Amino acid sequence: MTAVRDRLPEGRYGRADAARTERRLKALGAVLGAVLLAVVGWSAWWYLSTNDVSGQVVTFTVVSDSEVQAHLEVHKPVGTTAVCTLRSQAPDQSEVGRKDVTLAQHASVVDTMVTIRTTARGTTAELLGCQRADQH
């Protein structure tokens, strides 16, 4: 089979063009990959540098069919007012309670207990996010 290919005229059946096209596609793929990597890196840097308020639910307790209590810990710059959104869900994962908590304490770490009123028995307390009050 190789002997037959060697006897065919150069460039016939698009072989020379296929190699050139393959090189162009590889170069285009490398450029697009580099651009994608740069966009993802920039997005991650922007998110981390602009979001200086973070928090977590340390623990929670189901108090009753209409109340869930959460221990919330928030890290923020000193003197910044933060707003954190918490929610509680039922066993079927439907949302039964939601609360925005404003934290104006001067400290950089704030530990607080938050009571979420629920419309049915909640089985979770979840922090959806925290941000500066001026971004809320």
TrEMBL record:
Keywords: Membrane, Transmembrane, Transmembrane helix. It comes from the Bacteria. The chain crosses the membrane at residues 27-48. InterPro entries: DUF4307. This is DUF4307 domain-containing protein. It comes from Streptomyces humicola. The lineage of its organism: Bacteria, Bacillati, Actinomycetota, Actinomycetes, Kitasatosporales.
